[in-house]
Design brief:
The protein is built from 15 helices and 14 strands. It is an alpha/beta fold. The protein has two domains: 4-249 and 257-329, no CATH class; 349-476, no CATH class. The chain starts with a strand and ends with a helix.
């Protein structure tokens, strides 16, 4: 059984709790209980910030699997399933990632926003938007190779209530909230070694919005992508700018009893709120997806900074469990993922080889046009004549002020420049100079020798690399064509060239047929 570690503060150390801005009369009197949980085996990332935010908001978060063995991303599914079996079926349970989330709003705001989704399990949404269309489709293809098993299914369009400024149509398992009984039913086939996001994505795609829906507007879960998408506002500013869109579903029965709209936000101990500038929503949970650094936001909220955010070890473990939970559990997905990885690697290496070919051609052209001589005469020698005297003066100066001390560095630099121009580059034989000058010249000459040897080795290695690249130019061209062609074909068959519109064709054809019928009716009239 999963161990629990509550973060509820003592009465002496607790700070002032959140103050709900909405009048008490507008709040439903029979709200179910809300349990907030996370899964973490050790302290890392923003776990301390998450517990600290829970303390400030009196959210009493439960940390599951503390100091236990992590068995894969399915651990989150199994821990949530075990917890939901222990609480009343009518209670609400919310899971957040342990290492990259913080709470922003108190329980009652979270609960009332969740109830507006009609009892469905709500997951946070994410997007793969990129400024360049090809890379947008490439990232989406990688995403679907891992998280979408059936290529006949497609990510549905965001619901009409969602803002047009965001496209959060893909589910993200970093934030999940639902009734305990529904989570037990949906998670019944889960396993430790399955990838939780892949598992929930397939359930969502099999019948969108039936059991699972997406928080398209980020009213509960906000996936952090860039600091410019969020703005910290005072409570007074938020009351003027923040807006909350009530979710609506096309198949929602008209007789369903409606609840009063949830308040946009509550006045909390943070002294302000974070508003999503794209939707004007005030999220309840901030999710720093893929271990993004959000220290500037946590500083503004008065929360501790993240730990080991850019740790290579954490990224490697994340990649390992992602692969073992997706590629190794399904042969078809493993084949697609391997093809995508090999094609990408082949394309990158081939383009690198072609770039080296271009560099070799450029260097050959420079050599034929005496370009290197020009650079040496106009750039290298002037820099050398200015830097060498400075190095000499600083290497022969003596803090004790003895006979070897240099009293006027500017005059010495000018003297050295004159001597170097006349070809008198060694002063070792000058008896008027102290041993400090001799030592300075020795160090300087030694550095010149070392740099010369290093430069010779580098130029020899670069020449070999460029010659080899030219010899395999044809192979690089063939590899680039093969790799890019494979990626293009995979994009075409997995996501298509219009992934934002890759929906059920009936959804697109119906309005077109209705519009055609209306035009025909007008023409006949």
């Amino acid at each position: 059984m999963a161990s629990c570690l509550s973060s509820s503060p003592s009465a002496s150390s607790a700070r002032k709790g959140p103050l709900v801005s909405s009048p008490p009369s507008s709040s439903p009197s029979d709200l179910p209980a809300l349990h907030i949980i996370t899964v973490a085996t050790h302290r890392d990332g923003y776990l301390t910030s998450l517990i600290y935010s829970s303390t400030l908001l009196h959210a009493d978060i439960n940390v599951l699997y503390w100091r236990q063995k992590w068995r894969g991303f399915g651990t989150k599914l199994m821990a949530t399933l075990d917890f939901c079996r222990q609480v009343p079926p009518g209670d609400v349970v919310m899971l957040t990632d342990g290492f990259d989330t913080v709470l922003l709003q108190p329980k009652d705001i979270i609960l009332r926003k969740f109830l507006e989704f009609g009892g469905r399990i709500v997951m946070s949404g994410e997007s793969t938007d990129h400024r360049f269309p090809f890379f947008d489709r490439l990232f989406l293809m990688y995403h679907d190779c891992i998280f979408r098993t059936d290529l006949k299914t497609h990510w549905p369009k965001p619901l009409p209530y969602a803002s047009k400024n965001v496209d959060l149509r893909r589910v993200n398992s970093g934030g999940v909230i639902g009734f305990a009984k529904d989570i037990v039913r949906v998670y019944s086939d889960a396993d430790y070694w399955v990838n939780d996001q892949r598992y929930l994505s397939n359930i969502f795609l099999s019948n969108p919005h039936k059991d699972i829906t997406v928080d398209y507007n980020g009213a509960i879960f906000c996936v952090y992508t860039s600091e410019r998408d969020l703005k910290f506002l005072s409570f007074e500013e938020a009351e003027k700018q923040a807006r909350h869109a009530v979710p609506s579903f096309p198949d929602e029965p008209s007789h369903r009893p409606s609840l009063p709209p949830a308040p946009t936000f509550a006045r909390t101990a943070f002294g302000g709120v974070l508003m999503d500038t794209r939707t004007n929503e005030v999220p309840c949970v901030l999710h720093m997806h893929c271990r993004r650094n959000a220290d500037s936001l946590t500083d503004r909220l008065g929360l501790p900074r993240g730990e080991n955010i850019l740790s290579i070890r954490s990224y490697l473990w994340y990649a390992f469990f992602s692969v073992t939970g997706t590629v190794f559990t399904d042969k078809a997905s493993g084949t697609k993922w391997a093809m995508a990885l090999v094609s990408t690697t082949l394309s990158c290496l081939s383009f690198l080889g072609l770039a080296l070919n271009l560099l070799a051609c450029g260097m050959r052209w420079m050599n034929e046009k005496n370009g290197f001589s020009f650079l040496r005469e106009s750039i290298w020698y002037p820099i050398y004549e200015r830097v060498a005297p400075v190095v000499y003066v600083h290497s022969t100066s003596h803090k004790g002020g003895g006979s070897g001390a240099m009293k006027d560095e500017d005059s010495d630099i000018l003297e050295m420049e004159e001597r170097m121009r006349e070809g008198q580059r060694s002063m070792i034989g000058d008896k008027s100079q102290s041993h400090y000058h001799v030592l300075g010249y020795a160090i300087y000459d030694l550095l010149c020798i070392i740099l010369g040897e290093v430069w010779s080795v580098c130029t020899a290695g670069m020449s070999w690399v460029l010659d080899t690249a030219e010899q395999f130019r044809g192979i690089f061209i063939l590899g680039a064509i093969l790799g890019v062609s494979t990626l293009i074909l995979m994009i075409h068959f997995i996501v298509g060239w219009r992934p934002r519109d890759s929906l059920d064709e009936n959804e697109e054809e119906e309005p077109a047929m209705e519009k055609a019928g209306q035009n025909k009716h007008k023409k006949n009239a």
